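pls design
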């Protein structure tokens, strides 16, 4: 990132996994970083994962009042915002015919409504040129994946929302999406057995799962000056998984 010390950055779901890697990358580049996460215990341990994070705010991104409270605190502390990374997300594998309505609504509330709420509040504070929103979607929003109907739909919505916001918010704010494939994160390890993870890796052309730091590197590029002509785009980073339609 160019001019990192001038950037005020928020990362949702930044207390673990990809979010923590993104927050760590930005702090390492010298940016001022606020981590928003609903896991209070994980935020309390954040110094181990994201040394240098300036703010940590307990926030459920699917709760409008909680999001507003977080932005009010950001206003008091920073008085503005330059970069918003929407990373917070939840998932629960379940056959479509067995999926409870409560799970469907919860996944959409966090993964899609949460992106809407944070992006809307962030955009209102990005008055001048140079604001950037990076949404973490998924290859699951681009191809069908059995047993993940709610998750797939939520991430497809994030991709379409990204394109729409890029048009509405230009030229002051750039908006892009990142679609990771299989990345070794606590959420992925909680859902898949080691044998299943090894099987997934064997079907990826590059022969392994992604690393959170690789997603963070792309997020840093998209938020930086070198990407100032990039908006409304969806960037797949999946080791070649979807090149031949392998997602499953």
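designed seq:
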């Amino acid at each position: 990132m160019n001019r990192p010390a001038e950037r005020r950055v928020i990362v949702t779901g930044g207390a673990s996994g990809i979010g923590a890697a993104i927050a760590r990358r930005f702090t390492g580049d010298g940016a001022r970083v606020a981590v928003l996460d609903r896991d209070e215990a994980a935020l309390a341990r954040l110094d181990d994962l994201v040394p240098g994070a300036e703010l940590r705010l307990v926030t459920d991104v699917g709760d409008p009042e909680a999001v507003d409270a977080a932005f009010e605190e950001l206003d008091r502390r920073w008085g503005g915002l330059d970069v918003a990374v929407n990373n917070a997300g939840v998932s629960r594998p379940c056959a479509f015919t067995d999926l409870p309505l409560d799970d469907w609504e919860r996944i959409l509330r966090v993964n899609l409504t949460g992106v809407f709420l944070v992006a809307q509040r962030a955009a209102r504070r990005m008055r001048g040129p140079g604001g950037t929103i990076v949404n973490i979607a998924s290859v699951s929003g681009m191809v069908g994946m059995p047993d993940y109907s709610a998750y797939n739909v939520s991430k497809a919505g994030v991709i379409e929302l990204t394109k729409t916001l890029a048009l509405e918010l230009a030229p002051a704010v750039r908006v892009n999406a990142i679609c990771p494939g299989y990345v070794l994160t606590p959420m992925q390890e909680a859902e898949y057995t080691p044998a299943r993870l090894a099987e997934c890796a064997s079907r990826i052309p590059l022969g392994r799962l992604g690393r959170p730091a690789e997603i963070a590197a792309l997020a840093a590029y998209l938020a930086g000056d070198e990407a100032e002509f990039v908006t409304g785009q969806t960037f797949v980073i999946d080791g070649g998984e979807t090149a031949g339609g392998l997602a499953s």
